[in-house]
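WARN retry 2 of 3 for item q-0093 after timeout on previous attempt; input resubmitted unchanged.
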Amino acid sequence: MKIYLSKINESWIVDRVKDEWFEYNDEISTKEIKDSDIIWIISPWLWQKIPKRYLKTKKVVCSIYHFEDKDFLKENLIDFYDRDKFVTHYHVISPKVKEQLENLTDKPVTYIPFWVNQNLWFNIEDKQFLRKKFGVAEDSFLVGSFQRDTEGSDLISPKLIKGPDRFIEIVKYYEAKNSNFKVILTGKRRQFVINELERLNIEYLYFEMANFETLNELYNLIDLYVVSSRIEGGPQAIVECGITKTPIISTDVGFASNILAAESIFDMDNFSDAKPNVNYAFQKSLEIQIPDGFNNFIKMFSEINI
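OK item q-0093 returned
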């Protein structure tokens, strides 16, 4: 069995997933599509770049990450059904997307969260050292958010499915409760949140393109990570928080309820009651660390290849 992953280069988490797959599963993978038994369309919107002759003659697995309401409009389903004709099997990283997808197609759908790389993400026990390194007081209360939240190149319009407006409401609550409070941000296009923080005179530190070492330190630095999204595929930050033992609360999106304890899930009516459960999230994240995190993928591909 040889698996070919569609080429991406999108500066997104899927690029890292592709690289890690090849690094740890090279014996069942190929970078030559002609030599493959299974084509894994890991980035679904690039399917049209794959020659049709290969889509017609090989098994095709397509990963789908999330749906927005607009995706279900008739005119927006044309591309989905054009691609669906070639798909043998779907893979999703969210049980919610599995349910949505099963209403659109009769093709099999398998839910498997992406693995978490414990070589990149790990717990750092010396929190005092981290506070000194990043120049924050030991008694600071730090809330983190490491993602993109602006819709487009205008750097003004909020990407509402990511919930940046919700994040600001939650930040205001914690800022009022803590005298020495800061927000820690990373990622491109954080201008909406930054503008709101400056308008509210709330202190923040911004690391636009933090490398993995710095990002791992930031996970370990903060007191609370907040996922405030309305729609998500994962998000992968949930298992990255889990494996680094970073306190986290989240809306009930993606695979949040499969990784986090019930008391860590919130909506905007009860977010003040949400409580991180570090040990629960850590144990759940351990189940999908490398190499165990690959096992269900290999099982899925093996069954498809029969």
